[in-house]
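In this section we walk through a basic example: taking a raw amino acid sequence and producing a predicted 3D structure, encoded as discrete structure tokens. The instruction is simple. Fold the sequence below.
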Amino acid sequence: MSGLESRIVRVPTISILCAAMLCAAMLWPLAAAADTIKLKNGRTIVADSVRERGSRVEYEIGDNTYAIQKSSVASITAGGAPVVSGARTEEEVPEPPASEPLDRLPDLTNLVVVNGAVDTDTLALIEKQGDVQRTAAAYYAAGRFEHLRGNLARAVDYMKEAVRLDAGSSLILEHYASLLLTTGRAPEALPYAEQAVRVTPKSADTQNILGYALYQNDRTKEAVAAWQRSLELRPSEKTQAMLERAQRELAAEEGYGEQESNHFTMRYEGTKAPAALRRGILDALERHYSDLAAQFGDAPHQSVVVILYTDQAYFDVTQAPAWTSALNDGKLRIPLRGMDRVSSELSSVLRHELAHSFINAMSRGRAPVWLHEGIAQMMQGKTSAAFGRVMAQGFATGHFIPLNGMEGSFMSFGKDESAVAYAESLAFVEYISEKYGFSDVVRILQRIAEGASTEAALRATVHDGYSGLEGELGPYLKSKYGD
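The resulting token sequence is shown next.
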């Protein structure tokens, strides 16, 4: 990040999507050794392989190839930690169940996975043999394989069949519930998580998965109880962190009132949120909801929870950076900042945060943060006009944050770097929308929801991967805003 960018690009008055909606790909690490690219801005990229070509560094992650300017690279280290396909480590996600494979699972995996793909003929043959538990284990192996590869839609289908065949296996139930949570289907996940606990009540993993399912269904008190039971059975730093987060929420919201509208459930502290302000917020949200539903052609299928906080309670609960002004982590968390009416700025923030709920629903919780933030800003009415010229100069000289470096949460970014990340996210989405139409932005979200990686979704829709988009954005900004 150049000094010029730091000085000119201002921090937007909206929030980041904290932890990308709590639940994303819960995947097991692959065995392949990885290369590590250290960027000059402090970010790190872990790739399957890296090679230098002229002024660019190319690297591969799974089936996708990316490229960045060599001038932005500080160092390249061969080997190192294994790659986790599709995982975003900054998110709060359920930990995988303990590695206690079903009987004969290793042999079955070798049977049903041939040349890097599930052999459906072998699955059908195993099913014809009439051994129900063996067939369930085979479908589980196929689902686990597809989950590892990030093919979540197929993984869900295989795991659903495994559950149908053997609903008495807590391991199958846990993984199916985890997949449903990963793909934004929390109401569907809950009964399977509850069944897993009934089958194996003294399992830290089943209690942990149940905690996530309850939390995402807005049953925070019960989630706390499940996580406490999980920790009694086995310590876990991640589970402990989620427990403490949920306990902070309960403490902050004790005694809060509740008010509902057609699509929202609002919680508030009565003395800090006057009735007129509450009505104004719900009215604004309902207007934005109708407009966004028309633009996306779809909408969240559950009531959206909105929580109004004092400033202190907001930061106590979310632990968000000071530069955020609101937050959507599955619930819209809004600090009131002493307001007594819905100003145009507050309405804009509400629209931005609500857009995240639509994006999350459309992508089943799998959209990368740069796409989330770019679309949310565009729905808010922002454009690249304020920073397009400076950004064009940055791309021309190789001073930009690669798309691959903006897939996970922006929470770790400082004030200046977060401003650049927001600006780039908006510019990329603006470019795609102007060149191909917003309908293609929606199609990208739909393909991601079906299990495609972001780059695969881009290539299938706009025929460009990350490298192509990064190469095209600079000239686009230059043509639009000048040198």
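Looking at the output, two observations stand out. Residues 1-33, 79-92 have pLDDT under 50 and may be disordered. The first strand starts at residue 35 and ends at 39. In the next section we compare this with other chains.
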